[in-house]
Amino acid sequence: MHQTLNFKSMDGLLKGKRGIIFGALDEKSMAWHIAEKVVEHGAKITLSNTAMAIRFGKVKELGQKLNAEVIPADATNIDDLEQVFTKSMDVLGGKIDFVLHSIGMSLNIRKKRPYTDVNYDFYMKTLDISAISFHKIIQTAYKLDAMNEWGSIVAITYIAAQRTFDRYNDMADAKALLESIARSWGYYYGKKRKVRINTVSQSPTPTTAGQGIDGFDVFYQYADKLSPLGNADADDLANYVVTLFSDLTRKVTMQNLYHDGGFSSMGMSDELMQEISNKLNKD
Ligand code: NAI
């Protein structure tokens, strides 16, 4: 039978829900904005990041502000991930309703190895950290039976999974894998526990990972000029992800959802047309 959903207030969309947020480094991080927003909407959460990020970033500060335990974990390490789920269920007082994967890193990008000359050890690390970690997080939850029914798992991705962007390098391949993992696990976890799994494809956003991409400012400006609504920022993303963690989207699963001001459907905008024709007239 279809259950009627009754929301008294939009503010309490996540009231009573327990969540784990991976990937908040500092106040620019997407995960930082999402953590703040889910707590604002009534959720209780734990935060996780690498020991190094906890030491050098500001996640402890966020933990204090949101009254959230910070649990160190390398998201490529299964033992660490088991700790995160076990400890989170313990401190939050029950099974988990939502998980955010907001993790990405490429040593090829960091060390300026172009796509035509990647170091394959770095490449494997990119895939492990930026994509396979999503599989590992979900498999850990699945084996521990750590998610409540109708739970929601979201990872943040980029349109370079579908289209080629010069300089996005091996992260493009990682994002394609990440999105495929969401579809595959969405099937298995949906069948087992009605857990939904989606990726959200976000506009270029000025964060530590984002600004690490060579030519980030050009990516940003190009997308902003092409998108009828302009780029989506981290706060817009946080609002969208709240809906995906809420009971309002219980039948949305195995999707790659564009959150990009319309960028993904555009070919040419008047603004870009003007700029290029001005340049042509000058030459
Ligand atoms: P960020 O640098 O704030 O976040 C990346 C996080 O990954 C950091 O907290 C870092 O400590 C964590 N991380 C790295 N290696 C890890 C590991 N082994 N285990 C656990 N955590 C690890 O940057 P941002 O932009 O908030 O990145 C979040 C996600 O959003 C990434 O998946 C990124 O690819 C994606 N994204 C970013 C866009 C942008 O323009 N900034 C656009 C579209 C997607």
Account of the 3D structure:
This protein has one domain: Rossmann fold, CATH 3.40.50.720. It is an alpha/beta fold. It is built from eleven helices and seven strands. Helix 1 packs across helix 10, helix 4 packs parallel to helix 6 and helix 6 packs parallel to helix 7. The longest helix has 25 residues. Strand 5, helix 7 and strand 6 form a beta-alpha-beta unit. 45% of the residues are buried. It has a seven-stranded parallel sheet, sandwiched between helices. The structure holds 1,4-dihydronicotinamide adenine dinucleotide. 1,4-dihydronicotinamide adenine dinucleotide binds next to helix 1, strand 5 and helix 8.
Heteromolecules bound: 1,4-dihydronicotinamide adenine dinucleotide
What's the Cα radius of gyration? 19 Å
In the CATH scheme, the class would be Alpha Beta
Low-confidence stretches: none
Tally of DSSP β-strands: 7
The total domain count is: 1
Q: Please report the distance between the alpha carbons of the first and last residues.
A: 67 Å
Number of helices: 11
**CATH fold type:** Rossmann fold
Provide the CATH superfamily: NAD(P)-binding Rossmann-like Domain
Average pLDDT taken over every residue: 95
**Helix-residue proportion:** 40-55%
Q: Sheet bearing the most strands, described?
A: 7 strands, parallel
Could you state the order of secondary-structure elements as H and E? Answer: EHEHHEHEHHEHEHHHEH
Principal-axes geometry comes out as globular
Structural class, by secondary structure, is alpha/beta
- In terms of DSSP E residues, the strand content is 15-25%
CATH architectural name: 3-Layer(aba) Sandwich
Oligomer: single chain
